[in-house]
Sequence to fold (489 residues):
Amino acid sequence: MNHPVSPPRPAPAAEAFLAAAHALLSERGLTTDPERMDAWLTDWRGRYTGRALALAAPASTAEVAALVKLCALHGVPIVPQGGNSGMAGGATPDESGHAIILSLRRMNAVRNLSPEAGQVVCEAGVVLQTLHEVAEGAGMRFPLTLGGKGSATIGGLIATNAGGTQVLRHGTMRAQVLGLEAVLASGEVLDLMTPLKKDNRGFDLKQLLIGSEGTLGIVTAATLRLLPAATGRATAWVGLGGIVEARTLLRQMERALGDALEGFEVVPAHCLDSVLAHQSAARAPLAERYAWNALIECVSSAQDSATLREGLETALAAALEDGLIADAVIAASDTQAEAFWALRDGISAAERALGPAMQHDISVPVEKMPEFILAAVPQVEAAHPGTRAVAFGHLGDGNVHFHVLAPDGAVRGVWEEAEGKAVSAQVYDLVTAWGGSISAEHGIGQMKVDELARLHDPVALAVMAQVKRALDPAGLLNPGKLLQSPFST
Fold:
């Protein structure tokens, strides 16, 4: 068992900072204990491990503001962290040990919820699943969910502009944020919490902060939109012969089901096989094995489940008659629907159990996605013999997870740093050539900094660097993430 290594004694300047920070936050809000910090020094995927001067956990926006001012005074870098469930190393400090981790987990209050207004005000440390439960208790729902809902926090979701499985209908986190509170690098509190349908007083600064990964400000609270609780739900698992047919089915479902269509996920046979092997209690929804599967979900606050089910059944029957699909089953209960979703959500864990892999969160236009997959998979596998490329996920919004599994016998941690990097470079080159994005919903973090600098529009990068310098002139907010050295020019 590995034990945390005791950090070297801080320099006198750092000791002065730590003394002031301790006086501000007390023992509960600040620790330098290696054992208490250890779990938060490595990212969720286990790809990045750093060191930190301290772990700070303020309990209020006022404490965050005071701490940031203290960091600015002493020149201490800050790495904001929510649930530490990010996929790009965006909440992990570097190895210098100079930065503090600023955890928002103690700021977990739901300040206000108004069903009449369809809004909730909550702090950055509120866990997504908790927000779902609170909203449900008020007869409402928050229309964003993802596999990591039990650990992902509202602040982290905003910082990375998270997506998930309901983007097809409701949009990313950006679409859910009506107002925002953030602490800037100066320690000033930017209060944009009041939601207004119309507000033309210049730049929409909250949109600038959403997706900035803590490099421009630290999100401390948000006003989010809520929807009435669903009165009906219908979920189907469909077997298909190919990914092109899946796109055609998507368009047919959109025409037939309208706004009720909330999720359309694609799962290739290899991914389903992996989940069935990994989860002993899992069962295949269909009797036959199909090259591709689609997971379709309809949700409505105006129709009951029976009506939704009838509409979905009619639409699928037409697709079957046209020869577009091979087979389908509609969930008979919420329990069965959740079992379908467990198969989809279990893909990443099942693939991790198979061995090393390079995981890519990419997007291309929906109309190009099937052709991209059909072209990219053989190209990557041919260039890297022994690998297996698979694509799965949110076809409805043009975002798939393009994973490349290492050859048999590859050593975890070694293969990724050697051939794995060449694999990712090729994938990102292909995505860029197809007019897509190298990051659809997980951010850039530290994992994709170099690739963003290599492939993104130079003018856009220059503008982003100028914004960073303007809002964080000392470069203390989440250094090394998102942008390559914005202070070098």
